[in-house]
Amino acid sequence: MSAVFSGYGLGLRREHYRDFLETQVPVDFVEVISENFMVEGGQPRNILRQVRERHPVVLHGVSMSIGSADGLNPDYLKRLKSLVDDIEPLFVSDHLSWSRIAGFNSHDLLPVPYTDEALERVCANIHHAQDVLGRTLLFENPSSYLSFPDAAMTEWEFIAEMSLRTGCELLLDVNNVYVSASNHGFDPLAFLDGIPAERVRQIHLAGHSQGPDLLIDTHDSPVCTDVWHLYAKAISLLGPVATMIERDDDIPPLGELLQELSIARALGSAENNRRAGEAA
Amino acid sequence: MTLAEMQRDFQSWLVDASEDAADRLSVHAAAGLAVYQNNYRAQLVSCLEHAFPQLRSWLGEEAFRHTAIDHIEHFPPYAWTLDAYAEHFDETLRRRFPENPDIHELAWIEQALSEAFVAKDATPLSPDALATVDWDHAQLRFTPSLRIHVMTTNVEAVWSALCEGRTPPDSEMLAEAGGLIVWRRGFTSRLKEVDALEYLALVQLQQNGSFIDLCEMLVARLGEQDGVARAGALLASWLGSELIIGVGPNVLQACAEAVSVGV
User: Fold this and answer.
1) Taking a C-beta distance cutoff of 8 angstroms, is the pair B243, B140 a contact?
2) Phi, psi of A130 (to 5 degrees)
3) Are residues A245 and A227 in contact, defined by beta-carbon separation less than 8 angstroms?
4) Cβ contact (<8 Å) for B119 and A40?
5) Alpha-carbon distance B197 to B230, whole Å?
6) CB neighbours of A42 closer than 8 A, spacing ≥ 6?
7) Residue pLDDT, tens place only, B130-172
8) Integer CA distances (angstroms), B190 to B51, B122, B175, B243, in order
9) How far is B143 from chain A (nearest CA, A)?
């Protein structure tokens, strides 16, 4: 069982600022995109501080580029550290991906080849980031749309070794497991079985879309039935884990997202009952 | 292939659609490369659309999109924050629309408003703090959110109409160039049109901050009485608008004067 279960949350998006500032939204935490608040001043940081007074906050980044061959950007880490010190977040997370090389920044979560060299580089970068930030970080499995022929291990083997070597924790994106499993033809249950359960601190749920050839991680629709089934399987393996729904496009009224989040709560409750029954 | 080589080839594929780089990547499921390239370009187009909503209306959907694609082909993103990608859009606009200052000035307004929105926080100066100021050596410090730009067209009227959903006036050149200022008051970004003299005053103060130099410039242009009166009026206006965050002594000048009199 996870040591720090922290309930059920939602991503804080601009469309819902007023709801979160003026009403008591029934969530256990909110997650924000770190980069949106890594600014000098103004309204974004002010709003985040106000929300922080009401809810625990998770900082979720998209630009650390932990897989970059040429290391991490010191200015990025400095600004993230400032935000972390200001907000005192529940978790700080980013993705097992890369976006930056030789100064170029793609602003996309590009795939890391699962090679020994990449594992060494990713681990060195994680050590660096954790040293600068002074805390354990969570890394999320991204959706991916291609694989590399020189891969020496599976994604879950890479993640397990990464976590073992660095002590980092994991953000399990169940939708991304589903999308990548479909795109690459692996068994999503093998992924869930292969990652170190005791290192998973948070779960993401989201919607995806069917592209011409591949599933695309679009975050623009409700969580689909298959992903809910996979989530149920995940928590049966992991126990209760802090869970949230990501929605970044076609954002509905907050009530719809809370309704969707209640499905996660119900599945978590059912799993707790099942475990209690087994214990009895 | 090393990790660095792979990442540079990936960059070439995204930026230049290099088929050689794609071949070297030799990935399984090559359709995935197209997904990443589409994501890369769509994200940058979306960034520019969000950064310049009124310019998009002003240019029209098709012209804006072609300009955005042109920009993406010439300016790969380098900053860690996507917000910075809008900073150099004016370079592409000037190349594609060299004879359209209305377009350049409209883009400046939108970029300046975005920058001001997240500029460093600063506490505006209280008028009470002026009581003990040594005006001969006073240096005005403006809020970090202040942005100043020359205005040669009726762009403020165009921008206001676009923001309010009204039909904008035709673009026209001003009889006399003025200025545009953008700053943040509280948490709200503001835009204001200023006349040529206030624009010059702000530009000069941003360069050296000296209030006495400002007075001298205004006296030279307006005469003793009107020049001093205008300096006082501008100071009162800037204080009321929360543009000024400090009035300190001109340290270098004060030191030089102290040395010259043997202190």
Assistant:
1) no
2) -65, -35
3) no
4) yes
5) 10
6) B116, B117, B118, B119, B121, B145, B184, B187
7) 888 888 889 999 999 999 999 999 999 999 999 999 999 999 9
8) 16, 15, 25, 11
9) 12
List Cβ neighbours of A117 (8 Å cut-off, separation of 6 or more). B2, B3
How is chain B split into domains, by residue range? 1-52+66-92, 100-263
- Cβ contact (<8 Å) for B80 and A75? yes
Tell me if A41 and B80 make a contact (CB, 8 A cut-off): no
> Which residues lie closer than 8 Å to A80 by C-beta, 6 or more apart?
A34, A38, A59, A61, A64, A92, A133
- Measured between alpha carbons, how far is A60 from A71 in angstroms, rounded to an integer? 20
Report the distance separating Cα B199 and Cα B219, nearest Å: 16
Contacts of A240 (CB under 8 A, 6+ apart): A1, A2, A5, A268, A271, A272
Residue with tokens 């950007």: A73
d(CA B89, CA A83): 28
Q: With CB atoms and an 8 Å threshold, state whether B79 touches A149.
A: no
Tell whether B208 is within 8 A of chain A (Cβ): no
Give the model's confidence band at B237: pLDDT under 50 very low, under 70 low, under 90 confident, else very high.
very high
Helix (H) or strand (E) holding B177, with range, is: strand B173-185
- A67 → chain B, closest CA residue: B3
Task: Kindly report the number of other CB atoms within 10 A of residue B209's CB atom.
Answer: 18
Quick one: A26 exposed, middle or buried, by C-beta within 10 A (0-12, 13-18, 19+)? exposed
Of A69, A107, A110, nearest to B43 by CB-CB distance is: A107
Could you report the per-residue pLDDT of A180-201, keeping only the tens digit for each? 999 999 999 999 999 999 999 9
Phi, psi of A245, deg, nearest 5: -105, 130
Q: How far apart are CA A12 and CA B211, in angstroms?
A: 45
The pTM for the full model equals 0.93
> For residue B48, which of B86, B79, B15, B105 has the smallest C-alpha distance?
B86
Which residues 6+ apart lie within 8 Å of B153 measured at CB? Answer: B101, B102, B105, B171, B172, B173, B174
- Structure tokens of A18? 């007023």
